[in-house]
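pasting input
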Amino acid sequence: QGGVHFGMAADGGRVYVPINDMVNTRDGRVYDAKKNGAGVHAVDAASGKVLWRHMASDDCGGRPFGDPGVSSAPTAIPGVLLIDLPVHGDSRGWFKENWQREKMVGLGLPDFRPVQNNIAFNGPVGTTRGIHAEPWDKFVSVATGRIFGAWVDLREGDTYGTVLTAELDSAKAIYIPRGVGNAYQTLEPDTSYVYLVNDHWSPEAEYTFLN
Amino acid sequence: QGGVHFGMAADGGRVYVPINDMVNTRDGRVYDAKKNGAGVHAVDAASGKVLWRHMASDDCGGRPFGDPGVSSAPTAIPGVLLIDLPVHGDSRGWFKENWQREKMVGLGLPDFRPVQNNIAFNGPVGTTRGIHAEPWDKFVSVATGRIFGAWVDLREGDTYGTVLTAELDSAKAIYIPRGVGNAYQTLEPDTSYVYLVNDHWSPEAEYTFLN
């Protein structure tokens, strides 16, 4: 009754979820609320489709209850940062600050000034896009679904050719500076891939991509 | 075979869609591609859920083939602009420039400089959020699903109390200046509501909202 309720505690860095296994939401659909090693998510009991995720269990490592702050981690590619986004679930669904300039600068991101917001919706699982390496920086995340992302450093220097891969769901984002190639494949149907960039396309510029 | 293909022609301002009624996509699911007065959309044949929309037929009024440019229209509330976003469909899903600073300024929007990007995911149909009237301007759209939006002018002056309502799907956006209250209810399950704002929340400021 009353929808899906999420909770969290710092019991050894694992997610704690005081939640019924089967939950009737207001639209009459039955969701199957799961807790497993990959985090918490709500599944449509009829189709098996993942409807939303709370956050991966790793996101809670060491954080006290009630303080699911945004955090970032460096990667093997200089300037590429993986970001854990708090996702606040309730009976309606969830809410997240997908990008917040002050907080992101506080996490070590450059003072990113977006001029464009793009959304790519991918129906089938396995949809592949990229490699793209346009001359702008990107802040990438998903609204719905999940992707396997792959990035490669194409900048001249010691780290040229370095490859990074990661899964992104709604609780993850990645900052990708220009010169780093970006590609992804969807791991769930109906994945909405959302990104901000800080320069516009120009007919005079040269662009590098494989589609 | 080969997925969903969208096309468009300026035959009296209507959408023209050379598309099979039933299409097998790469993930093996069967989509039912519809064309009706409300535009083109792909429906999951098993669940009846709308998977994606191309664009409302009104969006094509008078535009030549191959030139589905972004456009805007004023509303009854001064400063509130409704925006038609071109949505480019192919076998993978679709792509849109959700916000593009230069083009939006060209359409008469203020030179909006976002500092934050929020996403609210709404599971059940009928999920209601608002009224909110925080002290920042907003650029609102959806990635997936569809909403009924309602806006009310709360600024002192001749237009105080003016109400505007509109449906937003992935081919629509709205610009809402500060002082205008914002609320919505979802018309489809799994609606991802995406917005950009140009100021951060502050503990010192006063906020007006009904949840």
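fyi Chain B touches chain A through 48 residues (CB under 8 Å).
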